[in-house]
Amino acid sequence: MSALPKVYVTRRIPPDGLDILRKSGQVQFELWDSDDPVPRVELLNKVKGCDGILCVLTERIDAQLLDVAGPNLKVLSTMSVGYDHLSLEELKKSLLIWACIFCRGIRVGYTPEVLTDAVAELTVALLLATSRRLIEATHEAKTGGWGTWRTMWLCGHELANSTVGILGLGRIGVAIAERLKPFKVKKFIYTDVEPRTELANMINAEYVSLDELAKQSDFLAICCALTPETHGICNWNLFSKMKKNAIFINTSRGGVVNQEDLYEALSTGLIAGAGLDVTTPEPLPTHHPLYTLKNCVILPHIASASYTTRNAMSALAANNLLAGLRGEAMPKELKL
């Protein structure tokens, strides 16, 4: 009787996913049983000879790791919707080993859609916290700054009659707009690599250029994937075209923002405020200049952090892994 496929799970994932793996009887798996990332040396040691890996977004899956894992590795399942931590070219690369051509041909599963609602909710929360200056207000109340009522103290910007821009219109962008519509937003606009007519019609959004997105938006939500084309796309060129009362929100990936340019835009009053759930690097060092700004709200990458969503992500990642190892269609496979 052949041995069960060997799997390494790089983090203590939520219980629903672990239960699926344990009860499947289809794999033998080893778990890095910690909430903290597995050390790189440990990771490289544990993936040797594995048939499958279930990872999270903190693990860098590159040529070094794939070489160490070896030719047995057939499936990689990431508990994330983003995949910029995966070297896609290496995953599908052909290698010359012992005078033989070896095609990795590794299948990749990921977890889109299940986190749409949680990310959209957090984006709206971050937008409101930033635009209505809730973190500042809480600090003032706690530290004795709350004195007599003042006419313009802690005034912020409201959504009613505003224009909301979305950079990268996908499921999450649509879900954000659906949640913002009851706030009496006047207009939704978006830009993407091309018009997304079907999605745009769901929220009555107008396709515009990146320049127009910057110029017209009172609130700008960044929802695009991190790719070579979007890396650093939110830079001084973008910020310099935005309104002085504009609120910038990023819950996508930190790499799409030039943080030095954002700091300058915020510290000089070029834009009114920014809310960030993602940064570069993560965690953002506590001495980073952005932390010194009252008009910048920074969260520790918690957009998908609801009990329901994290369990759904772990379950989908586990089912992707098992289906891939069986040679069947994955529930959600990233086509390479």
UniProtKB/TrEMBL annotation:
Domain annotation D-isomer specific 2-hydroxyacid dehydrogenase catalytic: ranges: 7-333
Record-linked SUPFAM superfamilies: Formate/glycerate dehydrogenase catalytic domain-like (SSF52283), NAD(P)-binding Rossmann-fold domains (SSF51735)
Protein name per the record: Glyoxylate reductase/hydroxypyruvate reductase
Domain of life: Eukaryota
Pfam family for this entry, one: 2-Hacid_dh
UniProt domain D-isomer specific 2-hydroxyacid dehydrogenase NAD-binding: residue ranges: 124-303
Gene Ontology molecular-function annotations: NAD binding; oxidoreductase activity, acting on the CH-OH group of donors, NAD or NADP as acceptor
InterPro entries per the UniProt record, alphabetical: D-isomer_2-hydroxyacid_DH (IPR050223), D-isomer_2_OHA_DH_cat_dom (IPR006139), D-isomer_DH_CS (IPR029753), D-isomer_DH_CS1 (IPR029752), D-isomer_DH_NAD-bd (IPR006140), NAD(P)-bd_dom_sf (IPR036291)
Keywords: Oxidoreductase
Record-linked Gene3D superfamilies: NAD(P)-binding Rossmann-like Domain
Entry similarity comment: Belongs to the D-isomer specific 2-hydroxyacid dehydrogenase family.
